[in-house]
């Protein structure tokens, strides 16, 4: 009925789980997406102008996916920390939206292959979400000022090195491609000189499809998003 995706940056939920969220939204699930940071250190500029552009890109993507609401916690990009204050904000959000499922980043993933170091913000938000979900949100002993306790049934962690669950996104891959294409400011690195009008969209489609196909191999699906799925006690 209700799903809450909490990520560090304005495009992270699209990269990780747009196919899953779109499928849930189509099935009538109320999907909320939270970006912890404003994304002002991303590609395509810096500072307030970029943060503003990225918020509007994220809102456009959210609309395509069928997300009911998109919110930004307004943290500084690159400065996300698993602090008491962040956990209290997350607990408030979890209790307010009362989701059955929370989707976020697997904080234990540090290296992907030999060329990619997982962004510190992705790890920090992942730890903060874990701590907020279990035990804090479900216990009145934690942050009593943040609303009545709510127990989250499932935690789906993307960007994981230890997936145990695959979600078939064949029916929503086109939505994922279109949602990622909304993040024009961040495509500058990806397209590297290819004009946004002529080649970017097909390149995004190619990258998204090949990653989904690679994810699908272990899950026995043509196109998938993979997760470490937990059911916190
Ligand atoms: Zn990110």
List the helices and strands and how they pair.
Blueprint: E1 2-7, H1 12-26, E2 30-37, H2 47-65, E3 69-75, H3 84-97, E4 101-105, E5 111-112, E6 116-117, H4 120-133, E7 154-158, E8 165-168, H5 173-181, H6 187-191, H7 196-219, E9 224-230
Helix pairs in contact: 1-5, 2-5, 3-4, 5-7
Structural descriptors:
233 residues; alpha/beta; Rossmann fold; 7-stranded mixed beta sheet; two-stranded antiparallel ribbon; 20% strand; globular; binds zinc ion
Give the biggest beta sheet. 7 strands, mixed
Q: Average the pLDDT over all residues and give the rounded result.
A: 94
Decide which structural class fits the backbone.
alpha/beta
Note the run of SSEs as H and E: EHEHEHEEEHEEHHHE
Amount of helix = 40-55%
CATH class: Alpha Beta
Q: Please report the total strand number as a whole number.
A: 9
- Main β-sheet, spatial strand arrangement: 3-2-1-4-7-9-8
Low-confidence stretches: none
| CATH architect. name | 3-Layer(aba) Sandwich
How much of the residues is beta strand, in percent?
15-25%
Radius of gyration: 17 Å
CATH topology: Rossmann fold
Number of domains: 1
Distance between the termini: 20 Å
Compute the number of helices: 7
Hetero compounds: zinc ion
Shape: globular
């Amino acid at each position: 009925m209700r799903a809450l995706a909490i990520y560090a940056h304005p495009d992270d939920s699209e990269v990780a789980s747009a196919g899953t969220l779109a499928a849930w939204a189509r099935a009538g699930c109320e999907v909320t997406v939270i970006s912890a940071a404003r994304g002002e250190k991303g590609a395509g500029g810096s500072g307030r102008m970029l943060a503003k552009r990225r918020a509007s890109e994220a809102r456009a993507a959210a609309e395509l996916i069928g997300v009911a609401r998109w919110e930004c916690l307004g943290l500084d990009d690159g400065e996300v920390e698993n602090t008491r204050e962040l956990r209290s904000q997350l607990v408030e959000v979890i209790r307010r939206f009362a989701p059955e499922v929370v989707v976020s980043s697997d904080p234990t993933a540090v290296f992907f292959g030999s060329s990619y170091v997982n962004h510190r913000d992705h790890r920090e938000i992942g730890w903060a979400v874990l701590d907020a979900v279990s035990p804090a949100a479900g216990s009145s002993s934690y942050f009593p000022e943040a609303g009545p306790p709510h127990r989250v049934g499932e935690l789906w962690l993307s960007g994981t090195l230890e997936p145990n669950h695959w979600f078939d996104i064949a029916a929503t891959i086109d939505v994922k491609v279109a949602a990622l294409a909304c993040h024009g400011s961040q495509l500058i690195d990806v397209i590297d000189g290819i004009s946004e009008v002529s080649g970017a969209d097909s390149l995004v489609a190619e990258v998204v499809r090949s990653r989904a196909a690679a994810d699908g191999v272990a899950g026995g699906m043509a196109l998938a998003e993979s997760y470490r799925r937990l059911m916190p006690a």
